[in-house]
Amino acid sequence: MAEGNGARLRLNPYNDWVEREGLIVHEGLACDLLTAETKFWPRLGVNGAAVHLRGRGDFSNLFLIDIPPGKSTEPIRHLYEEVVYVVEGRGSTQIEFADGRTHSFEWQPRSMFAIPLNAKYRLHNGDGKNRAILGTVTSMPLMMKIFHNDSFIFENTHFFEDRIGKDTHYNGSGDLTMIRPGSNIWETNFVPDLGSIELHTWNERGAGSSNLMFILADSNMHAHVSQIQAGTYKKAHRHGAGRHVFTVTGKGYSLLWYEGEAEWERVDWRPGVVFPPVENQFHQHFVTSQEPSRYMAAGTSNQRYPLTEAARVNSGTDAAQGAVARSVKDGGGQIEYEDQDPRIHALWLEEMHKNGVTPQFDKYETAPKVLTAAG
Fold first, then answer.
1. Are the C-beta atoms of 40 and 288 separated by less than 8 Å?
2. Do β-strands 273-275 and 265-269 pair in parallel, antiparallel, or remain unpaired?
3. Residue 110, H or E segment
4. I need a labelling partner for 58 at 20 to 30 A (CA). Which of 221, 235, 276, 366 fits?
């Protein structure tokens, strides 16, 4: 932007790059990746789009990659990190390192993987009849804003050997570190199926809730999977921006609002739908399916490498994983069941009735009496 005497001020190198790439840009609160429009993206050699949702924040974004039947992306490497989630389709990833080592693995719907920083890779659609749809959450906005130089991002030859990880991290195996509920970590590069990986109980976030955190390619990217039991819902909480939430299994809806607001925004979700809650916006997830619902959240900054001091503080060392699962009454970011707006539970009961689902809060000792009685 030129202002006044022609000074170049308030530039956004990332947005300028998206425009140069000719990408379709999807905006709003949420996006259905299965129906979103894509077009040919020369850099990747397949179809794609940029997904710039309201809650993406300053550091992360989402690219939609749409690989036609039997096609492959062009080889690419880059100085931004990414977490890839397979929404639809089957195929494989081939990764090549500067020292000649290679890794490859096959993926399917609900697979998740990370590309080690600046490694060359290709994505192959192994189905000759159907497309493959992948959503990739990246740190591209942060890196492009810092360097604002395309060739440095995409043509840098530095070899980050320390990011490769173990060979077993590319075949679905990983290393589990048990810390505490909400902070247990699975370190890997590839998860074949987020719908079946074992999770760990985290009742502080809701009745019967479970969770698993990931460290992927020793990167700065965050990823975790949480499960909401059928016939229940999670407690409302808030945190920083940029956590792109993908539905893995089940269906339901989320309510989003800022402190002091009397009304909510609503997002209905099912596999294919992604949304990132906006900075410091309360959000609460409700299952309306007969089976449990899992979701994957990805963005920048994780437990190993907090990107900001606020992220470091909020990751915490106490049993409630910092502010994430601590009551707002105690300075945290969570609203306990007994403190929530009574209309929230009443609305959920209506949704349960419409969908023919029986509330199940009475199965869990952690459910407050006011809910077990009402449900």
1. no
2. unpaired
3. none
4. 235
Half-sphere exposure in the Cβ direction for 189 (13 Å, CA): 23
DSSP code per residue over 224-247: EEEEE-TT-BPPEE---S--EEEE
User: pLDDT tier at 319 (50, 70, 90 boundaries)?
Assistant: very low
pLDDT tens-place string over residues 193-220: 999 999 999 999 999 999 999 999 999 9
Domain residue ranges of the chain, discontinuous segments joined by +: 2-167, 180-374
Q: Report CA torsion sign: 163, 168, 173, 179.
A: negative
Q: How many CB atoms lie within 10 A of CB 37?
A: 10
Prediction pTM value: 0.94
Q: Which CATH superfamily is domain 180-374 in?
A: Jelly Rolls (2.60.120.10)
Classify domain 2-167 by CATH number: 2.60.120.10
Provide long-range contacts, Cβ within 8 A and 24+ apart, for 324-331. 324/182, 324/237, 324/239, 325/182, 325/202, 325/204, 325/205, 325/237
